[in-house]
Amino acid sequence: MTPFASLPRRARLNRAALAALLAVLVALSLPLPAADSPPAPAADSTDKAIDRTSFSLKYPSDWKEDTAAKDYKPDNNFTLNSAHNSYIQFNITTKSDDLKKVLDNAVFNLDGLAITTLSKSPLDQWGGYKGMGVHLKGKILDSYPGGIRVFTFNTAHYNVLVVEFYYSQELDPVLGEMDFIDQNFKMKD
Question: Any idea which fold 4-187 has?
Answer without folding.
Answer: Protein Transport Mog1p; Chain A (3.40.1000)
